[in-house]
Amino acid sequence: MATVVVALGGSLLRPEVEERHNWLQSLVEVIVASVESGSKVALVVGGGAPAREGIELAKQFIEDVTHLDRIGIAATRLNATIVREALAEGGLDVSKKIPESIEVAALELENCDVVVMGGTDPGHTTDAVAIRLAIQSGAEKCVIATNVARVYSHDPRDNPDAKSFDELTLAELQEIVGPPKHAEAGTSQVVDPIGVGEAYDHGMPLDVLDGRDTQLIKKSLDGDDFEGTRVRS
Ligand code: UTP
User: Which residue in 12, 51, 140, 153 could disulfide with 75, CB within 3.0 to 4.6 Å?
Assistant: First the structure.
């Protein structure tokens, strides 16, 4: 049975995503269809607005990045709970608890069709968690559902000449996002450099796409052509 892990950027659940109720509903339909076609799916949900707000508030008097990371992790688990409950409501066999480690998540995935989790430990983001879980559970790939259409050579908001890519190697993606080290809590790259480093080490394929359009997630899960960036060894 094929297993796929999806990192869902927390920004996808933010208030400014138009029609986010419809988005969540259609995400549930996409996961139901994928499970019906014989896949197991693990979703790793980012912290989005609550992470950013919480870290911003605490930053005024907390300097230790590990402590700020813990606030981010709590936010990812809040968002994971929202997604978990929506999937359970959609009739899916989804693990009851939000696993707090990769090991527990991989075990849960052996028993259930769907597992939803947030972060694990300080020092990285949920992209890295998703990539680790994909490696640990022998998944065929890890989908990075974010809020940009593709991976760009530079941030397109600052650089109008930024080039976008349909395909990249893992080594090329590492060059774009930088060396595998933890950024300041709450700041983000298109894909967490720490996760990219582990994907590179294990040859884990990544599909980077705009998760605001759930049909792109569906196409990637179905193994069809999708608009986005395919990252391979
Ligand atoms: P996210 O995974 O949401 O990171 O975790 P992000 O890339 O900054 O945000 P989005 O999803 O693209 O909007 C939020 C924060 O929580 C902490 C980190 O500080 C991260 O920046 N975190 C999360 C951890 O320390 N460990 C984890 O396993 C997950």
Answer: 51
